Sequence to fold (635 residues):
Amino acid sequence: MPEQWTLTLRLYRQKANEAPRYDTFTLQVNPDEYVLDAVERVWAFHDRSLCFRHACHHSTCGACGMRVNGVEKLTCITPLRAVTQNGAVLTIEPLRNFPIVSDLVVDMGDLYRKMERVNARAVLPVTEAEIEHPASTWNPEDAQYLRLSDCLECGLCISACPVAATTAAYLGPAPLAAIQDQGMRRHPELLPLADSEDGVWRCHSAFECTAVCPSFVDPARRIMDLRRQVVGAKLRQVFGK
Amino acid sequence: MSKPHVIIIGAGFTGVATAHDLALRGCQVTVVERGDICNGTSGRTHGLLHSGGRYAVKDKESAIECIEENQILRRIVPQVIEPNGGLFIALDDSDLSYAEQFIAGCEECGIPLEELTPQQALTLEPNLNPRLLAAFLIPDATFDPLRLALAFAATARHNGAQFRTYAEVETLLMDGQGNVTGVRILDRAANRHEDLHADMVVNATGAWAGQITAMAGLDAPVHPTPGIMVAYDQRLVQRAVNRLNEPGDGDIVLPQRRMVVVGTTSFTAENVDYIPVTEDQVQLMLERGSELIPAIRNARPRGIYMATRPLVGSGSGRSMARTFKCFDHKETHNIEGLVTITGGKATTMRAMAEKTADVVCAKLGIQTPCTTRETPLLSYRQYYTLSNQEKHYA
Ligand SMILES: Cc1cc2nc3c(=O)[nH]c(=O)nc-3n(C[C@H](O)[C@H](O)[C@H](O)COP(=O)(O)OP(=O)(O)OC[C@H]3O[C@@H](n4cnc5c(N)ncnc54)[C@H](O)[C@@H]3O)c2cc1C
Ligand code: SF4
Ligand code: FES
Fold:
């Protein structure tokens, strides 16, 4: 018999033209299940009107981002055990800095628009993917193999970013990381965007994005690196190199 | 004359591909989906863009569909595919004795095949079990499930299709003579019921297809057949790795982003809305997966999940054909206005849609031929940027 916990989920609820509220559901759960499983269980057995987004259930699609006890999580890979304990109340809310569609679902159209604007790579050669583990040494011919990029476009970094909270115009962590991934040398056409008022210079280095990113993108480091690239590219322009 | 209106129930692979096809042929399309895109089986797919090798011995019809569609999807939607091929490897005598049928089957189905020595295979994939006895290279690939569906949905939306997500079909609207004229939905985001009328309703609800046909008083021969997958936190291979043998449990390991995913199993289920994971199946994936790639034992599970195949026809589990069926309920039960499409697999989504759209168009008197083979799909992101009728409030 797997271990059983009694858990109370406190879920943010909001329907069109209604004021937001919190609903609670007390469930028997296996602590090794994921937060998303518990949410899906509420929908399947307790309240069919609950709206939430999910698809892959293994951290590849980026659909299931929510705030769990106030922290941005990819709920499909967050075991209950990692965020709560037997008998506790677990609060689940939608991501911040996006308009709410219903309950736990937000409209991330703005993020996708920005990812399109910076032409973010959806697939890239495995040799360019900066995999730290397992330590692999690539042969030049491995560049023919492609892989899906690390960024899931899940929006957690946007939700956690204190600057994104103040202005929707800010490009934000994931789109800036996507510019860095392409590189100023290979993609000088992205310089004006990166160098703009709403680009790299608006970042306050809060590092919240990297703290919540579930997919090893490390946007904060990439933004710092992009600043260096932007300075380099501008120097090259000045000196005509 | 105004365009004929077709309602598609379900925005899994089958529903979005059918929406794309019918939008290109000039229908006014509305997709109604109770959750978001791909919340059912499609999102939770293992992610193998089949070359057909898996079915080449026992289910040639599926195998031929797979190799054709594999080539088409690589062309029209490269943005969601890791196109690195796949290996079938033999680890014991039983595997070796399967090789002859496998080679013959692949040849017969037109699946390109290259035999490698174990040493060559290990050079390509150093994490393979070093005890492998034989290896064959075939054109498998892997895909991101949600983005695959979104690319079809984005293109459909661009061509005028409307997507009503969080809209659950509660009943079918009937004309009093037993014919279907539309659907009654519960808009779960607005908390409101709404009647939508159409010239034709397509039931693309996969494992739930029987629930929709029951609303018209009909049975559908769908057998919900779930299976487990376990994603581990290391990318140990660049290609799909299959066990060279008859399809069995845990005999495919796929790379995806920074992970490998081992799958799957095949059993029968009653309630398809929630299928719990069982520890013995997780253990089985580890055992079977690490026979192919021993280093999986050093990796950690990152995501463990279940999905439910909508298999059609008689037989059970793995012996059931993986092909698809489109039912015109005028022919099966003398009920006009309802077509059900189910079965199949992600790899054959476009072909399933073509067949369904052919049936729908013939019934509506539309002669425009299918063009989805040649039509490149828009960026998956455009599904969200082309956002249609949904109202937002903060
Ligand atoms: C374990 C497993 C592994 C698989 N691996 C692979 C693989 O590697 N490669 C491959 O090619 N194929 C694979 N498949 C097969 C493939 O995933 C399925 O064939 C495919 O996803 C089915 O798509 P669908 O659109 O028919 O069904 P679904 O994706 O389930 O779509 C049906 C939709 O209907 C909606 N719906 C249901 N009821 C209602 C209602 N009343 N009102 C409104 N909407 C409703 C649901 O919410 C759902 O989104 C796998 C299947 C399983 C189970
Ligand atoms: S950078 Fe990380 S947190 Fe931000 S969208 Fe990409 S994967 Fe999500
Ligand atoms: S459901 Fe896909 S990332 Fe969580």
About this structure: Residues 170 and 198 of chain A are 4 Å apart (CA to CA). Chain A touches chain B through 57 residues (CB under 8 Å). The radius of gyration of chain A is 20 Å. The mean pLDDT of chain A is 93.
